[in-house]
Amino acid sequence: MDETATLIDSYTEMTELLLPNDTNTLGRALGGAVLHWMDICGAIAAMRFSNRECVTASMDHVDFISPIDIGEVVVVEGYVFSVGQSSIEVKVDVRAENPVEGDQRPTTSSYFTFVALDDDGVPTEVPSLDCPSEAEQALRDEAIDGRRQQLEELVDRLES
């Protein structure tokens, strides 16, 4: 495949209002709800990039670093930062926003791998990733470095 697509072609932002159905008894976001939103955002980014149906192959380690409280806006952002032959790597970040005060804080992030499928449901080639702007190059580099650091920290924890 000689096609290319840009990182910005894949950029996806979703917002959710945290309501009681997605909270625990403390009025904070259920981890499973946040993971669900992250998976959807990542899949949309992969599909926008490849113009194909995409399925989740894996999700890297996730740490919830800050709670999301009922009534806050959940902002989920994803973009493609690397590709293989049929695989698409997507970084997904989540932040909480107080809609009254406008304060924002990061809550979690992770790296997903999706596989693009053809019309028969068979893995198929994806476009090459192009990052023509400095901003796109910086996002790609940040994702690659962040994933490498996360994996190194995980290996260090397992070895100690």
UniProtKB/TrEMBL annotation:
One of its GO terms (biological process) is acyl-CoA metabolic process. One of its GO terms (molecular function) is long-chain fatty acyl-CoA hydrolase activity. InterPro entries: Cytosol_ACT, HOTDOG_ACOT, HotDog_dom_sf, Thioestr_dom. Residues 8-120 form the HotDog ACOT-type domain. GO terms for cellular component: cytosol. SUPFAM superfamilies: Thioesterase/thiol ester dehydrase-isomerase (SSF54637). Keywords: Hydrolase. PROSITE patterns: HOTDOG_ACOT. This is Acyl-CoA hydrolase. It comes from Halohasta litchfieldiae. The lineage of its organism: Archaea, Methanobacteriati, Methanobacteriota, Stenosarchaea group, Halobacteria.
